[in-house]
Amino acid sequence: MSSRWSGRNVVVTGGLGFIGSNLAIRLVELGARVTIIDLPDSASAGSLSNVTSILSAARLLREDLSTPGDWASCIAEAQVVFHLAGQVSHSASMQQPVDDLRQNCGSLLNVLEAARRSTPAPKIVFTSTRQVYGRAESLPINETHPVRPPDINGIHKVAAEEYLRIYRQFHDVPSTTLQLTNTYGPRIDLRNPGRGVLNVFIARALRGEPLEIFGDGQQRRDILHVDDVVEALLLAADLDAPGPFLLGEARPTSLREFLDVLAELLPIEVRCRPFPADLQSIDIGDSHCDSTRFAALTGWSPKVTLREGLASTLQWARSQRS
Amino acid sequence: MSSRWSGRNVVVTGGLGFIGSNLAIRLVELGARVTIIDLPDSASAGSLSNVTSILSAARLLREDLSTPGDWASCIAEAQVVFHLAGQVSHSASMQQPVDDLRQNCGSLLNVLEAARRSTPAPKIVFTSTRQVYGRAESLPINETHPVRPPDINGIHKVAAEEYLRIYRQFHDVPSTTLQLTNTYGPRIDLRNPGRGVLNVFIARALRGEPLEIFGDGQQRRDILHVDDVVEALLLAADLDAPGPFLLGEARPTSLREFLDVLAELLPIEVRCRPFPADLQSIDIGDSHCDSTRFAALTGWSPKVTLREGLASTLQWARSQRS
């Protein structure tokens, strides 16, 4: 794979974030010329410490894609743009919908406008979410499932996927969308509880705090290690098909199973309690995504076991504290 | 109907525009306390002259709903908000997508946030477009047709309809969506060719310029007089059902038929020419919308004949010139 990426001009928006930083590091390893674009405001951006190891090898631009800036020429000159920038918290999108609109729709439209002015336009790889399908009618979910976003963030992700279609159709901007589920691994954002249940579990476990499961913990999820997601993103860059493509596990993991493996690696206390009303209303229930379509075109499949993946995540987290 | 509206506190956003001004005038006639909100910038706003007759009876606020302002308290205090403000040109949305985003999505989210802070929240009546369905799979189109927006404006109208669903579900903001098609009548915007084919035809006919039909003129459309649309909006305000509801004619009208009636009222020259490539790519083909669902709930049906409607439109236009 090294030769394929060697010398390629690649942009990773949101490249200080969890998945973005893992992707940027991998691209540098593969020999790509990497530009990371992330917000200047450190409260909203990912963490600079995520990319310490590649700061000498990659270019870093601290700009906001929702306003004009030097980022536009970076996009225009790139061969591949991984657009991972965005507001990802579902609950934050319900509290501050206009912020979510600006960060998810406004920024992507600006990126697409910059891409459209370049010939040939860069290939855009976009990370959407399995959440666009809402509560599953049947499992596993595949890409023919009705689109029914359960919150403002989901509505904006649907709009984003549609923008990509319009820019493919009318402006010759090639793109591929991956719909992600729960992702964990080194550089996971442990600061912000809005980022998802895995983040909360890992953060509390590391602090020695008891973990709360809503309901009986039998809710099933696709839980993917970030290395497997990064591999999918790399494959998507050279895929001549727009998707969207769902990423999931062959067999989904219950939150209980996740905690059982976590408990093998460090002592944790688990408490079960009823679902809080405000979360239940936007909970999606059981979920399992069928990746057959993406796998058939690319050969992708998740490789990292939960035990390996959690071990490396905890090792990373401990190294951060010391 | 008079008693139903008498004294009611009603906001019409986009109330200087074509449909908005007709609605505001009707509401004043019915005894409502009307606040019109429209943009301060006269190039983007509707026309102040549209509401000359009610300026002493209605309140007028020239503010931009995409930024904070006094408008928010008007929304919160209203019993009914007719949200007609927005960018309506499909081609402009393709040229300036971020403007379309701000005017169509940003403004509505702000209106909904203001509505949500009020108890009880005002009823929102929203005007979407038949365009959200894209090219028809079969005719007539009804509300079960797959949603497939053909341009950026359509994507934003879909997002807007989805916002309303989320605010009904989580924030108790009641709303009803009407999906409009081609509307004509007094106060139609004759300045801007992006506003639709009927506007262009009427404007050119009044100037004595030849009219161009793309193709053979047999393209069929629902062509509704604004009085019938206003009546539908009034009915939607008191309807306890979210829709969306399509508005259409019992039998659609071909552009050729439209021009034939126009030719009875003033001398026009019609030229046929092939479809320009840039327009063909976003043309929706034949269209006919089934209003059965809305009619069954409200008794609505279009009343104004094309001949009556065009005659009153031309009379209005001539009065503007003199």
Give a description of the structure.
2 copies of one chain form a homodimer. Chain A has 322 residues and is of the alpha/beta class. The first copy, chain A, has a domain at 2-184 and 224-249 and 289-302: NAD(P)-binding Rossmann-like Domain (Rossmann fold, 3-Layer(aba) Sandwich). Helix content of chain A is 40%, strand content 16%. Chain A is globular and about 55 Å long. The two termini of chain A are 34 Å apart.
What is the fourth-level CATH superfamily of one domain in chain A? NAD(P)-binding Rossmann-like Domain
Order of helices and strands of chain A: HEHEEHEHHEHEEHEEEHEEHEHHH
- Which band does the percent of strand residues of chain A land in? 15-25%
**Average pLDDT taken over every residue of chain A:** 93
List unreliable stretches of 5+ residues of chain A: none
**Strand order, biggest sheet of chain A?**
3-2-1-4-5-6-11
The assigned structural class of chain A equals alpha/beta
Distance separating the two termini of chain A = 34 Å
What oligomeric assembly is this protein in? homodimer
Alpha carbon gyration radius of chain A: 19 Å
The pair of chains with the biggest contact is: A-B, 25 and 25 residues
**What do we call the CATH topology of one domain in chain A?**
Rossmann fold
Secondary structure: number of strands of chain A: 13
Q: What would you call the shape of chain A?
A: globular
Sheet having the most strands of chain A: 7 strands, parallel
Fraction of residues in helix of chain A: 40-55%
**Number of DSSP helices of chain A?**
12
CATH class of one domain in chain A: Alpha Beta
The CATH architecture of one domain in chain A is 3-Layer(aba) Sandwich
